[in-house]
Amino acid sequence: PVDAVISMGQPYGPSSFEGINRLALIARTGVGFEMVDLDAATASDVMVTITPDATRKPVASATLALMLGLCHQVVIKDRIVREGRWDDRFGHMGCEIRDRVIGLIGLGNIAREVVKLLPAFQPSVILATDPQVSRTAATEMGVELVDLHTLISTSDFISIHCPLTSQTRGLLSEREFKLMKNTAFVINTARGPVIDQKAITKALRNNWIQGAALDVFEEEPTSVGEPLHKLENVILGPHASAWTYELFRDIGHDCVDATLAVARGEIPDHVVNTNVLERQGLRAKLEIFRQRWVSQQ
């Protein structure tokens, strides 16, 4: 029996909580929590936390790195050199973020960090769509809040930063890709199923869009025969583009902080299933932990 679990990507369904009486915390190393059944966790008086402070800068910088990689066709030009096709460089002219429209799907912590980084590259405007953000708040960030249709039809770079929910699953389907500019780039460092993978593969093959950078997929790892592997106009990452020593140091620090808070009988930061905080079962667990902590000091 354990009081807390620090967890990377393991799934937790209803059966995971059967017969579990002491557990009070699942500390997730990241910001996604779709792999945890929050209703089941709440019913078992278990808090689920995430580490948004640790992930904000690494994922934002990874997003910019992928965006710039698309701009300058880094993967294609690397292949040109390795394959001895030097003169082919003339057929792969790049572009800049400068004077282009950036569209952010989701305007949470990571997207806001992207907004801070973008001015150095002088985009013409930054658009965003997020039902949780007010127009006033967006304006204060220097962002124009628009609907999804406007964003995907006018943006040169479309970057996904929303969580995976029943509302966002398959958010970008064939219909949406056909609305995009044929010069548009799509970047996804959030969750794979937000994009219909067959649809983006078709969009890339048929040049409905110019390119994409995908660090996440509908199923991970991707299969050996995944059609995206054969396409030149896409940068692929193994859900690790943001992995840095600093990221893992900071998510470890934040997960340990959450665990120590529970050990002291306190509520940690960044609890996502906030309904659990009102449950008597959780309060009883925290009181036991508090008394134990005091007795050991």
TrEMBL record:
Keywords in alphabetical order: NAD, Oxidoreductase
Limits of the D-isomer specific 2-hydroxyacid dehydrogenase NAD-binding domain: 64-240
Name under which the protein is recorded: D-isomer specific 2-hydroxyacid dehydrogenase NAD-binding domain-containing protein
Species in which this protein is naturally found: marine metagenome
Domain D-isomer specific 2-hydroxyacid dehydrogenase catalytic: 12-273
Pfam families per record: 2-Hacid_dh, 2-Hacid_dh_C
A Gene Ontology molecular function term of the record: NAD binding
Gene3D superfamilies in the record: NAD(P)-binding Rossmann-like Domain (3.40.50.720)
Family, per entry: Belongs to the D-isomer specific 2-hydroxyacid dehydrogenase family.
SUPFAM superfamilies for this protein: Formate/glycerate dehydrogenase catalytic domain-like, NAD(P)-binding Rossmann-fold domains
